[in-house]
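Q: Could you fold this chain for me?
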Amino acid sequence: MSTKRKIAPDSPFSFNMIDLRPLGDSVYHYATRVVNVRVNGQSITDDLPMAQPVYAIFDTGTSGCGIHDVLYFGDNMPLPARKVEVDLENVLGERVTLSAKATRKELFVVTPSKIPWFDKKFNKNPDRIPDYTDSGRFEPRVIVLGTSFFKDRRLTIDIDDAKIQLI
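A: Sure. Below is the predicted structure, expressed as structure tokens.
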């Protein structure tokens, strides 16, 4: 913990955090907007409408990758998943790719994740969730990035400035 700024405002390795609570999440996750997700080299998000956001959650309690079950069981998902690449936009507007893969020496597990945060039937505060069906909005999709994506890097979270840095 520090009271000083830990992430330079123009760092090419930093990303703006997105608060998913107004969208239905009940916790302030360390999340950022995703540009594209590729599994085994094939995009699993290209077919999504432009208005349907995909978010990456940085989760130090996870080792592999959790992919929102709607994407995981979608037609574009190549199985078994051996490599995941996630394109993010940094604070400078440049595309940065984070990746993790299975090797002979390293286990990398990709699992489907049921994420009911954006569903009024399962959310503890359904009155706070936007109406995703009639307003032209699309329910967000989530990719959980575990420590395999941070290998040999340092993850810094600045809650006050709403920034994530991975160098």
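A (continued): The longest strand covers residues 31-39.
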